[in-house]
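User: Show me an example of a complex going from sequences to structure tokens.

Assistant: Sure. Here are the input components:
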Amino acid sequence: MSWRAEPIAAGVGAAEWWMEEWVRLSAFAYRNLIMARRNVFFLFELTFWPGVAMVSHGLLTRFLDLTPQMTAFILVGTIALSAVQVCQLDVAYAVLFDIWSKSMKHQFLTPVRIHHLALGSWVVGVGRGVIVWALMALIGGRAFGFDFLGAGGMRVALFLLGCFLTALVIGLLVCALVLLWGTRAETSAWAAVNFFVMLSGIYYPVSVLPGWVQTISAGIPLTYFLDGIRAGYGFPPRFAHPFAIGFALSLLYAVLAHWALAAAVTRSRRTGLLLKLSE
Amino acid sequence: MPASPFAVEAHDLAKTFRSGWLRRRETPALRGASLQVERGAIFGLLGPNGAGKTTLLSILATLLLPDRGSATILGHDVVREAFAIRRRLNMASGNASFVWSLRPAEVLAFYGRLYGLHGRTLRARVAELLDRFELTPHLKTEYNELSTGLKQRLALAKALLNRPEVLFLDEPTLGLDPDVSIRIRAQIAELRRREGTTIILTTHYMREADELCDRIAFIKGGRILAEGSPDELKRQIRIGDVVALRLDPAAPAGLADLAGVLQVQARGDRIDCTVDSAEKRLSEILRWLVEQNVVIRDCQVREPELEEVFVELAR
């Protein structure tokens, strides 16, 4: 599987080529949606864990008697973690479903490309991420008086898009790790997000982190998206143009993660792991 | 340039699997395998476990990269032009598995989309395959709850979604009941007859290979030891013909010492006498038995079974 787009074959019209691209991409969305409908653990991902996180963090802000502004600071982080987690899992499922069902080789036997797999599953992840956000914003608003839209509609939209792009990058990296090390790397699907959000100032400003960690934080897009939305709640931004920097970094990492996954697929064809994951 | 008569050509393919971090282990799976398969033929790959059959098939199916050698499918290189090949080939394995929660039509629709099928074409193809493999009564059953035979039929249906010109079948009847195996074999033969599909199959069942395959290659230790039609192989291996006798009295002493007699196996009043050539030795054996006052109640000559050729080669 290469990362390059397939050239339009002789005799195949551009419209037909685009249609095939869309259809391949939609295959992964189709499968993720069916799985989400039939498996109860998807419902937990969507409602239970985000609900628990929002309620427990909301109660914590009450116990600490935080101002509405500080409450927003914490709860924005809570929402970011849940939205990124849910969305990146959907991307990782594009590979994990095949690993769990030992059907990996069938997928890679077809003329499918990395971008079909990534974007198809990401679209469902975005949909589920929006549901998580809406649910958490509702709980936050009703139970703790937290107005998520108080930061401004455009800012919220940019923040969510940034979270979902971060999720795409993390999801692709998880897929690459799983194809490099097999089921041993499976736990990275759940662990990776927590590691990145910890470094990007999830419940605290990055300024409280040690200097060298702040350097790493500056390389993580979510740091900028959190900075950008918190500015909407009155916190002075640490970075100039945080959303622009965040999106630039996200796009760069998306290309690199795409390349890393393509390289991992090629390596697994060389080592035979692709077949082992189907046995 | 005229199209090659061969759908599959492999030359000197080699593959070694490496594992372990500290203690590096190397397992050679293929050590220079070459073969040619004509368009529209059914080609059998036979060999003991670990012989390299699945490795060879996987390289040809673009799932595995060879360490050495080259191979083309329908004129496309399996390493450099994998994407072009994948549109035109497909594969089904005896131990195939799909995502547990999907129902048969959903499995086919998912893979159909990956092949670029959509809309009415996809729906018609899925319905046709469900009908052909008698899966329609199981539309509401999730994959996990299907029986082994149904799973196998679904794997075959999936393998035909893109109307492949080249089809790889890895142990397609593994672990199936005899009646299901017979139906699957009939479907494989029908596929070649109706659509001219080139089929390469691996199997442990010699009868299956004998019945289906135009040509067979015996593979062992990563090398192809012999290749030919089932009849050619039986002659080529020279394990002789079997003269099956029913005698009274049974098993006269001295039969094994006759010229050309390779082996005598007695079971009650029946004797299987393996000779180098039945045509040359039959009259001598019968004459000798008459001279020994032995009554010959039955006499049949048969060629060796493919299984016996397999055992001989696998030794």
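The lines above are the inputs; the final block is the predicted structure for all two components together. Residues 14-276 of chain A form one domain.
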